[in-house]
């Protein structure tokens, strides 16, 4: 217990809330942009031709390499840290969405066309449901990446947060709190990923029925 108090200088919830907020803000933004752009790239060939290659060139850049640019782009470190968590979640969500849309069963598309379905109904009733499992996987992976990138951002630019305190404990040679910080980060990341997984399962009731029937 003493180590916990030593680790959290000040109010513990201040640091936890700061980390959770940064992840939530970056992850939510990444979800909106990643799914929207992924669907557009996967569904429209012209957009894929224009956007896919530049995004592929940016994707391998590690999160830590974005930190100096984030500091230059944003007026405060808080926005920069949210941007880093956004980067961490954006590319897994984007790529998973693209692959999900592109892997739509061609037979289902032809059946829809034979039944006279318009493009919007084909997209809404066939493409999006078919891509949902892949999108769900990207969302879960993206959440884990957000926590990973948050710790990196907090180490270099934070004043509050679990990642910052973990690094601060290392610098001050206060080693027991480092383990506690790692466990706390792992716990919050696991709970966040589990929540995302459960939420996406609710959006795919047909998969739940399939599991039960098997």
Q: DSSP helix count?
A: 10
- Alpha carbon gap, first and last residue: 47 Å
User: Low-confidence spans: pLDDT under 50, at least 5 residues?
Assistant: 1-7
Helical amount? over 70%
CATH fold category name: MetI-like fold
CATH superfamily: MetI-like
Helix-strand sequence: HHHHHHHHHH
- The 3D shape can be described as elongated
In CATH, the architecture is Orthogonal Bundle
What is the CATH first-level class name?
Mainly Alpha
Percentage of β-strand residues: under 5%
**Quick one: how many beta strands?**
0
Number of separate domains = 1
Average pLDDT across residues?
82
Largest sheet composition: none
Rg (CA only): 20 Å
Description:
This protein has ten helices and no strands. By secondary structure, the protein is mainly alpha-helical. The protein has one domain: MetI-like fold (Orthogonal Bundle), CATH 1.10.3720.10. It is elongated and about 70 Å long. The N terminus is likely disordered. Keywords: Cell membrane, Membrane, Transmembrane, Transmembrane helix, Transport. Belongs to the binding-protein-dependent transport system permease family.
């Amino acid at each position: 217990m003493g180590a916990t108090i030593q680790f959290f200088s000040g109010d513990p919830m201040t640091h936890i809330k700061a980390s959770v907020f940064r992840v939530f803000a970056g992850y939510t933004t990444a979800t909106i942009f990643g799914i929207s752009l992924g669907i557009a790239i996967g569904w429209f060939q012209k957009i894929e031709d224009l956007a896919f290659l530049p995004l592929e060139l940016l994707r391998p850049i590690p999160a830590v390499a974005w930190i100096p640019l984030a500091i230059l782009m944003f007026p405060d470190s808080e926005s920069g840290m949210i941007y880093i968590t956004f980067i961490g979640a954006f590319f897994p969500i984007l790529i998973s969405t693209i692959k999900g849309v592109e892997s739509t069963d061609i037979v289902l598309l032809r059946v829809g066309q034979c039944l006279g379905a318009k493009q919007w109904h084909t997209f809404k009733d066939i493409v999006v449901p078919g891509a949902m499992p892949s999108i769900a996987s990207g969302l879960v992976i993206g959440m884990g990446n957000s926590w990973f990138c948050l710790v990196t951002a907090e180490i270099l630019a934070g004043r509050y947060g679990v990642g910052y305190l973990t690094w601060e404990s290392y610098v001050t040679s206060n080693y027991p709190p480092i383990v506690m910080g790692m466990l706390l980060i792992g716990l919050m990341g696991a709970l966040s990923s589990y929540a995302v997984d459960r939420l996406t399962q609710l959006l795919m009731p047909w998969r739940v029925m399939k599991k039960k029937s098997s």
